[in-house]
Amino acid sequence: MSLTLYMHPLSSYCLKVIIALYESGVAFAPRLVNLGDPAQRDALRKIWPLCKLPVLRDEAREQTVPESTLIIEYLARHHPGPVPLIPEDPELAFKVRLTDRFYDLYVNDTMSKVVTDRLRPSGGRDTIGVETARGQLRTGLQAVEEALAAQPWAAGEVFSMADCAAAPALFYSDRIMPLASEFPHVRAYLERLMQRPSCARAFAEALPYLYLFPADEAAAPAPRRPALDRPPGLAARGDLP
Hints:
It is built from eight helices and four strands, in the order E-H-E-H-E-E-H-H-H-H-H-H. By secondary structure, it is of the alpha+beta class. It has two domains: 3-85 and 230-239, Glutaredoxin (3-Layer(aba) Sandwich), CATH 3.40.30; 90-197, Glutathione S-transferase Yfyf (Class Pi), Chain A, domain 2. Strands 2-1-3-4 form a four-stranded mixed β-sheet, with helices on one face. Helix 1 (12-24) crosses helix 6, helix 1 (12-24) packs across helix 8 (197-206) and helix 5 (127-148) crosses helix 7 (184-195). The two termini are 23 Å apart. The model is unreliable at 224-241 (pLDDT under 50).
C-alpha cells in the first residue's frame, strides 16, 4: 500500500485527516503512534524530525507530508477520491480553505488550550489563560452559530475539507463546554456530522481512547461504537499500545 498515515485516533488533527480519507475512499495503512513511548517517538522522528502527528508518507512518490490541511490538499491533488473535498471553483475553494483555517485556529486550538491545562499538575494551572481561551472559543463558536443558521455544512451546501476540520474541533469542544444551550445550530450540525459514515467510523475508532480526554461532567455521552470485530482501519486490539 502506497500511503501510510502516522496517527493517533484521539488526536483532533489526525481525526481530521482520517475523516477525509474515509470520505474519499482512499486506501491507506494507519500506523498508530504513542508519542509517550520514547521508541515510537524516535521512529516517528526518522519520518518527520519535528515528531508531530499526523504525518502522511507516500512511498510511491517518495513524499512525506505533515500537517492536516496540507495532507488533505496533497490527497486532493495526487490521490483524489469520488468526493471533492476541495472544490474546483476558485471562489468556493477559497471559502473552504478559509473555513478550514477558522476551525483549526479559532475553535480547535483554543479548545486545546483548555484541555492541555486540565492535564497539567495542579500547581501548574493557568487560570487566566484558560478563561481567555474559553472566551475566544465562545467568540469563535458564535461566528459558527451564525454561519450554520443559513447553511447545512461548514463552508456551504456540500461536505468539504472544512467539515473534516470542524468535526473533531466541535466534538471535543462539546465535551469541555456543552454546546446545546448556547449554540443550538452548532449542536445540530455536530449531530449531522456524527451521522455521516466517515465521521462515525473515525470516532468509533477513537472511542477506546476517549477515557483519556478530560471532559466536563455535563458533556454529552460518547458515541456508541458499532458492532465490529475490530475498529476499521486499525490494527487488532492486541497490537495497540
